[in-house]
Amino acid sequence: MDLTLLAWGDTGWSDEMVFGAMMTLAVAVCSYALGIVIGSGFAAMKLSQVWLLRWIADLYTTVIRGVPELLVIYLVFFGGGSVLRGVAKGLFGYGDYIDLPIFVTGMLCIGLSAGAYATEVIRGAVLAVPKGQIEAARAVGMRKWLRFRRVLVPQVARYALPGLGNVWQLTLKETSLISVIGLVEIMRQAAVGAGSTKEPFTFYITAFVLYLGLASISNRGFLRAEVWANRGVRSA
Amino acid sequence: MNWELINESWPVLLAAVPDTIILALSSLLIGFVLAIGLAIMRLSNNRPASSFAYGFVYVFRSTPLLVQIFLIYYGSGQYRMFLEDIGLWVMFREPWFCAILALTLNTAAYSSEIIRGGIQSVPWGEVEAGRAVGMSRVLLFRRIIFPVAIRQALPGYGNEIILMVKSTSLASTITILEITGEAKKIIAATWSPVEVFIIAGAIYLFINFIVTRAVTMTERRLNPLHTSTEANVAVQVH
Q1: How many Cα atoms sit within 13 Å of A208 on the Cβ side?
Q2: Are residues B130 and B76 in the same domain?
Q3: Which residues of A touch B197 (CB under 8 A)?
């Protein structure tokens, strides 16, 4: 193992790898945010009275959680462009060739997958809020939106936090799959380095350590957030 | 919808099913045995053993499976001379060996946490009762702790099986043509992702449906409350 390969600057690959780690973090954060938005929407659908909405939400979570992420990535990567071109042509009459940026494609794929897991977490958290509290809020004359904002959301956030922490860990690891469509994050950068120096072990062990670091730091953050969110709750 | 393509790719993707199943099954079986060992180590009073198990599980659960696969398959190439000297290169040059090794270590880490949870949920009174009738440690584990722990751990382990079936798709990144590998080949050649996704997705969903049903049935069989009342009466009489 030639450690001079990992020098900082023009002679080594450390700066490139750290840049890759920042890209990984950027995709992960964007996909995670998208996943929570999707998850909230589908959780609301799962809890709705309309059977069609419930059915659509069930179909979404069953398919996404039962099919490999790699397959979803290929679907969006190879199919996203033609959908986009179809929309551009149909709605705006734009006939030239356009394609989704890789970052957006990756964010959509990972966000879709994170969304399916977040749906179940958020649905469980909503069900965990005691009914009496909603009734109490109604009794003091809070309107629907105020009940939602003051009573439901803060508690759902607290109940959902441990589950959403797991979803974050999943999301962070899943971003490595985006390397197959060419986004230069940790894995892609490691593959490039491995290819041009013929030292694959050095680069993949670096990638390994970077992921380990990102996961450890963010895990600690989530644990802290949990302590903060439960600061007013009595427990044994 | 291109029906001709569906007709053509259906048999190709079905033919890849055995590869996916072999990858999943072999790594699940070996991984399960390793997981039991890791769970016992983690719960033992032996500090080094317990720390090793903790570290192993932590590291494998915090890094993507793709890195683990690449590290083993491509990374081993850097030490080819050394591996040739000790005679292991014949194994590490095989993508199948590397994929199963990575999948096995990965599932061992996740499953050991599930089994640990199961072992910890065994009521302490049952362990004491076993000790009171003079069971040895091995007998106690085999007859009391393990069966009760497995019953508790089964739902979680069912999820792990499904995750593993999905994870086998990563073997396609190191040249193994299982379902996802074949699907990617067809998609790249025809640029018809939707049709291929529907077939390959349906195959995965069907496999996972079977797994879910099998786990539910096993759960029912192992749960004493669901066995027939006659059996319970018989136990009470004797």
Answers
A1: 18
A2: yes
A3: 71-72, 74-75, 79
